[in-house]
Write the structure tokens for this entry.
Amino acid sequence: MNPLFFVLGIPLLGGLALALTGHRPWARDVNVAFSLGTFVAACFMTVQVINEGPEFVWDKLFYIDPLNVFLVTLTAFVGLTTAIFSRPYMRVEQDHGKMTPPRMRLYHSMYQLFSFTMLLGLTTNNLGIIWVAMEAATLTTVLLVSVYRTAASLEAAWKYFILCGVGIALALFGTVLLYMAADKVLGEHGATLLWTDLTAIKGQLDPTIITLAFVFLLVGYGTKIGLVPLHSWLPDAHAEGPTPVSAVLSGLLLNVAMYAVLRIKVLTDGALGNAMAGELMMGFGLLSVVVAAFFISRQKDVKRMFAYSSIEHMGLITFAFGMASPLANFAGLLHMTVHSLVKSAIFYTVGHATQKAGTQQMSEIRGLIKVNPTVGWGLMLGVMAILGMPPFGVFASEFLILTTAMREQPWATPFLFLALGVAFASMLVRVLPMVFGDSTLKPLAHPPALLPVFAHLLLALVLGLYIPPYLNGWYLQAAAMLGG
């Protein structure tokens, strides 16, 4: 049986099972067990693709290639480590009265279904099913963001639902336009939304229709990515939802939306034969980097600050893919990987820090290194990594993006340096007192799960020093597939 059956089946079964038993004390362990099963299945699928190359599954409905296989493994891995982190975190939230048994059941079931929707979107070959998966991911995360049932969390969930609902509606219209373009080439009986079929005829697709389709799809999925000016849901969702949800939103969901845009960009480049798609992506990406950097300097809530950091980095990734050279594509893929690892690790430490302090206001969180040295050092190292300090992987990917921009888009380089400098100074000046200041905080009632933090940071460090040959091979193949 193909490993994809287990990659998709395990989280779907987990969501159904935890919908019935997610309120039990042992449900936290069951959530981890289902996430572990998904990760093991993803590893088996990865090995199969490495040995046998790209493959179709279930009559071309699913397609696994170098562009999505490493994202599947990354998604399953971060899903597992976040489930491990959430065990003590959600137990403390339950002790504080924020999580009742029905809310725990909702949280655990939606967590697994959220994983299922992301993996479905990454592995399907059908661009229509990608849209369905993104819509399902929106609905599950709305329930996760609102799980505390406070006025602020309900408002954040409503804003998320409305803005992303509008975005997904625009993406649906873009998907319909794609089908219309395919229909003009293949006829109504041969028209298809299978990405591999569309790639084979991309040179024959109507340029006008494809241009409109890409604009609608970029705006639609760009809302999920958090590109400025479509970003306003993201800081609220991060600030008001549980921290494990913030970790998977920043570390995983943004990548899935970016993946959908990249698939469409390949078709658009082939149909138009020019750089229109890349120029739009560079424009949105650069705007996101600059705006997010200045918003970081104004934040007082620690989770909102790191939410804007996610917008900044997704903007940088979008800009890299917009340049469309093989080196820029390679750098964008590497940055997607290390950003997912580092940002989720940061949210793990922030989750424990805010539980200790009882607040998310940075001015009231002090001296973490004295209260719990591992939390303090985890946050400090994570911040240094996300700010691009060597030898972490973010430094390597940002160096590649910036040097490529100097050569290919020199007009944008000053804006990138300015934005990265503002973000560096703004974040560092806020985090240093949180870690090294004086504190009267008391230790948590339950030991925090810090293994995921240092596992992620270690992987980010390794990727800054040495990229394993098989991973380098994926990046090179995927970069070539994206064109340039």
Summary: The longest strand covers residues 55-57. The mean pLDDT is 89. Strands lie at 55-57, 62-64.
